[in-house]
């Protein structure tokens, strides 16, 4: 009896001692040896873990990055203003993590999950580490469901599937953000949750995105994770990882999620700055040796899960002077499943969105395209490729035969129909009908300037008359001969002016 009681007492004592020693290690403190822009070197903290969150005496946060034998390199996640040599710093015992959950929808937060909007504190119960392992191969499913962008040139020629990683690449001011934003806006009716992650962007650019999301009623299903250009490089560096953890929460609940990283060039610059400040050896273009790894580790987390749920990533990268072979851009091109290249030349010609179809590719999206779309898209790509080649020859003033002239004329109309204003998304059915009309030559007699008007009339007509075909197409049916005939007939009526605004004209 006494033995039993002694054993119990010993067990209680052991538990108390364990708890006490754990608590003791949590309050391990150190002091700042010296502090620079974005980083600090700290003495003490012998048991600190890599990526552990550390708290300075003034309440600022940092993250243990370089663990040397005699000091710790800490990346600052707040401004360094009130941190000086001698400042105290303590371990928190947890790696950097963020709140996750439905409460984040419609909110603007930073990489630590702190609200940046005026809607008060976040009511979330769960947190996830910002650095998480990507799903294993066996947990993944093939990408075979479309993610509709509503943009004709993308959905037709460079389709994106749910779970795909598609790079948006281009010089500055070529419409990269506009393209990603249009994709987010188009998810309103498809129930896809969106995360817009701004890294190193100017405040006015982010404000424009927020305003557009609000004005178009898409903010409620979007989370904005923002680290502006004036934030410490450490905070900019962890922002995409934090945003991905917030996205993974929804993916693991079986939801489809879209994440936009705007942009990874600024992310790479922030990491280079941190690495140079921490005196890590510089490599090509002064980037550290693991620059490829930081991006592949991030994008590996986007996938489609076999048990349901997907995370589609649209990373954006900015290049200079159309140099697609730039270091960070080529790294990202090799990591992702395709790229959308935005050309400054097309942008300046007013061919918006300025997607250069020849330099863009989607390595998996074709399998995800709706079956009805595949037939139309094939013909469209062929016309466009032939047209671009012929247009080059035509510039030399070569005399052209009638067939070539006809191909050129059709190509001009195809190009006209692929123009699209930034906030005018088309449903898959509308896109199929419009593209069918142009590839079948039903707009050949219309002057190109009248094509946008004909397109509008056609869209309102088919939605009104053929809603049922649209529904079937969306459910995965191909376009049968009868439906195709009916649609072509309607197209013919619109192009000849027989039908206006979806109604038969008074003839
Ligand atoms: N399809 C479009 N229709 C009309 N305007 C467009 C279209 N696409 C982009 N724009 C306009 O072009 C301008 C540049 O677009 P955006 O800011 O998206 O480019 P960016 O490449 O992201 O720029 P930055 O390099 O500064 O990040 C914006 O004013 C935008 O409204």
Automatic annotation (TrEMBL):
UniProt key word ATP-binding: yes
Predominant cellular place of this UniProt entry's protein: membrane
Keyword Membrane set for record: yes
Residue(s) at site: Required for activity: 360
ATPase F1/V1/A1 complex alpha/beta subunit nucleotide-binding domain boundaries: 150-362
Domain ATPase F1/V1/A1 complex alpha/beta subunit N-terminal: 29-93
Intracellular or extracellular location(s): Cell membrane; Membrane
Binding site for ATP: 170-177
Catalytic reaction equation(s): ATP + H2O + 4 H(+)(in) = ADP + phosphate + 5 H(+)(out)
Membrane association type: Peripheral membrane protein
Protein family: Belongs to the ATPase alpha/beta chains family. T3SS ATPase subfamily.
Main function: Produces ATP from ADP in the presence of a proton gradient across the membrane. The alpha chain is a regulatory subunit.
PANTHER family according to UniProt: ATP SYNTHASE SUBUNIT ALPHA, MITOCHONDRIAL
The protein's name: ATP synthase subunit alpha
Gene: atpA
